[in-house]
C-alpha cells in the first residue's frame, strides 16, 4: 500500500453530492477539515454540469475543490491514454491520469474503466466507489 | 502580483524554505500556495454549511465515518462511500 496525498473526484462524486449523498458530503467535510482540498479535473466539471440538475449543490462542493485546468499537455496525455484504454470516456481517463500524476485516491463510480486506465499508467488505483 | 512584507518566526521560515526547495518552487510561491489552499478550505467549509442548511447538519457519527474513510483512502486502502441518497435528512 502506498500513502496518497489527497483526493480526486470523478463524475460519480459530483453526481452523488448533487443527489445529496451524505456519505460523500461527510468525506468532503473530513478532507477540508484536515486541510486537504480535493481535485476535480475540468472535464469532470463539464460532465457534471451537463448531466446534473442540482448545479447549486455541485457549486457548494466545488467551493472547496481545486478544479484542475485541462491544459494542452493534459489533453494530449488524456487522449493518448483513452486510445490505449479503448474508451471514449475522457472524464474517466482524466481522473485516472490526475490521480496517478498527483498521487491521490479517487472518489468515483466507474470502477472498471478507472482501474483499466490506471493500470495502463502502472498506477495502483485507490478507489472509493460511490 | 501584489508584494507584501510579512514576518515569520525563524523556525517557520526555515521550514517553509525546506518545503519550497522540496517542492521545487520559490519561497513566495510556496507561501502563496499555502494561503490559497487555506482560503479554499474556508470557502469549502462554507459550501458544506450551505448544503447542510438544506439537507440538515452532518451528525457526529457521519463526520466520524467520513474521517475514517479519509484516513483509509490516504493510507492507500480502497473502499466504498455508501450511497445514502434515499436517506437524505431534511430539516423539519
Notes on the protein architecture:
Chain A has 130 residues and is an alpha/beta fold. Chain A has a single domain (6-129), classed as Rossmann fold (3-Layer(aba) Sandwich), CATH 3.40.50.1010. Helices cover 58% and strands 14% of the residues of chain A. Chain A has a three-stranded parallel beta sheet. In chain A, α1 (11-18) crosses α4, α5 (72-85) crosses α7 (111-120) and α6 packs across α7. Chain A starts with 5 loop residues before the first strand and ends with a strand. Chain B is mostly helical and 92 residues long. Chain B has one domain (10-87). In chain B, α1 (10-23) crosses α2 (27-55). Chain A binds chain B through residues 1-7, 16-17, 19-37, 57, 59-66, 105, 107, 124-130, and chain B through 37-38, 40-41, 43-48, 50-52, 55, 58, 62-63, 65-67, 69-70, 73-85, 87-89.
Brief digest:
The complex is a heterodimer of chains A (130) and B (92). Chain A has 130 residues and is an alpha/beta fold. Chain A has helices spanning 11-18, 22-33, 42-51, 55-62, 72-85, 90-102, 111-120, and strands at 6-9, 39-41, 66-68, 104-108, 127-129.
